[in-house]
Amino acid sequence: MFGLFQRKPKETAKFEVRFLPANTTLQIEQGSNLLEAALRHGMPAPYNCRVGACKTCQIKVIEGRPKSLMEREYVFSRQEIEAGTYLACQTAVHSDMVIAWDNSEPDGAAKVGARLLEVRPMTARIHRVRLQLDAPLSWRAGQFARLQPFELDITARSYSMIAAGHHADIVEFDITHYPDGALSSWIVDPANAGKPLSIEAPFGDFGLDETGSDTSLPLLCIAGGSGLGAIGGMIGTCLDKFSGSPTARPVVLVYGARDQKEIYALDELQRRAEAAQIPLSVNVVLDREPAGSSWAGRRGYVAEHLTDILAEAARHNDRFRLPASAWHVLLCGPTPLVDSAIATLRQAGMHPDQMSFDKYEQGVAATTAAVI
Ligand SMILES: Cc1cc2nc3c(=O)[nH]c(=O)nc-3n(C[C@H](O)[C@H](O)[C@H](O)COP(=O)(O)OP(=O)(O)OC[C@H]3O[C@@H](n4cnc5c(N)ncnc54)[C@H](O)[C@@H]3O)c2cc1C
Ligand code: FES
């Protein structure tokens, strides 16, 4: 009797999505995330971060009208956007589609053996890790590598390389140790010094692209936690390259950390900037510093302080007195910090194509599906 009045569950529309070059067609529910749907159906889809930062899941839409869940200007050029380039992890299905999904490894990435050469604690949680490579590799500061110890049965974890390397056989990372983290706990365990692991690199194109941009315009660098490693590497590259030049990019650095004990590497950057005679404004924002401590600086979240930090930099140095549209912004660290900072900068009038970011998502470990 009651059954007569029961509403039939509304059926969600399904669309046909054809994947090239495999020529596999899947029925995918309207509104589904394309990457999640492909993985659920067992497609060997390449991915890494799942948050629109690494570009591993890049696709080309040949037919159909997908909805991008992020503004593509953050990661793609105008030409790439016009050619139909999307990130599968940031794409919702809203029509039948034909997409080209290149499952090959990115150009230039190689897998080599390495040894754990040195692990230096920078703070209680962040360690600077040096690897000796069995064969040389080349990369830009900010690109990332996938690390996998031979003796651990885990999927590779992603880490950003600090300084750039050209045909180099030493690579450095700043790695946050999570007590229940498989890779980071292995790295910091002194018993594993000198042990072998595999490194696959380079991936991603986060970083400073100097081609075609005015290298005298200011740089706003925003880092959270171990994101300071890659950001510091990029600032260091600028300092070395333009040392002594009166038109070198001035830099505002904003570092978000938990407490005073997590402040590291900043004095060294200041010293290098002074030696290179390049303006560097360093700002620290602490979100877990105990009330009543000796800290007289900024407290709370980075995003809450950005407008004020830029205004203060402009008051202290004319080189920072420029409209929002003049800045180039690099962001690196935990996803909430990066996302909230981007939202504030957008409100202040900055455009996605001024920004480049990397989000330190707990990407690989959180997933059960196979990675390439
Ligand atoms: C492109 C890219 C670049 C990255 N670069 C760096 C880098 O340079 N330095 C760095 O420290 N990390 C970086 N990360 C993040 C790093 O890959 C993850 O944190 C990784 O999962 C840690 O591996 P693990 O084995 O130690 O911990 P897992 O075994 O993966 O995780 C176990 C537990 O550790 C904790 N945990 C792990 N990662 C996170 C996280 N990111 N946020 C919050 N809690 C977490 C959680 O408690 C989790 O339950 C990057 C991530 C990406 C996608
Ligand atoms: S950008 Fe999609 S998985 Fe990283």
UniProtKB/TrEMBL annotation:
This is 2Fe-2S iron-sulfur cluster binding domain-containing protein. The keyword Metal-binding applies. Pfam families: FAD_binding_6 (PF00970), Fer2 (PF00111), NAD_binding_1 (PF00175). PROSITE patterns: 2FE2S_FER_2, FAD_FR. It comes from the Bacteria. Transmembrane segments: none annotated. Residues 109-209 form the FAD-binding FR-type domain. Keywords: 2Fe-2S, Iron, Iron-sulfur, Metal-binding. PANTHER family: NADH OXIDOREDUCTASE HCR (PTHR47354), PROTEIN RFBI (PTHR47354:SF5). Its cofactor is FAD. CDD domains: fer2. Residues 15-105 form the 2Fe-2S ferredoxin-type domain. It comes from Jeongeupia naejangsanensis. InterPro entries: 2Fe-2S_ferredoxin-like_sf, 2Fe-2S_ferredoxin-type, Beta-grasp_dom_sf, Cbr1-like_FAD-bd_dom, FAD-bd_FR_type, FNR_nucleotide-bd, MRET, OxRdtase_FAD/NAD-bd. Signal peptide: none annotated.
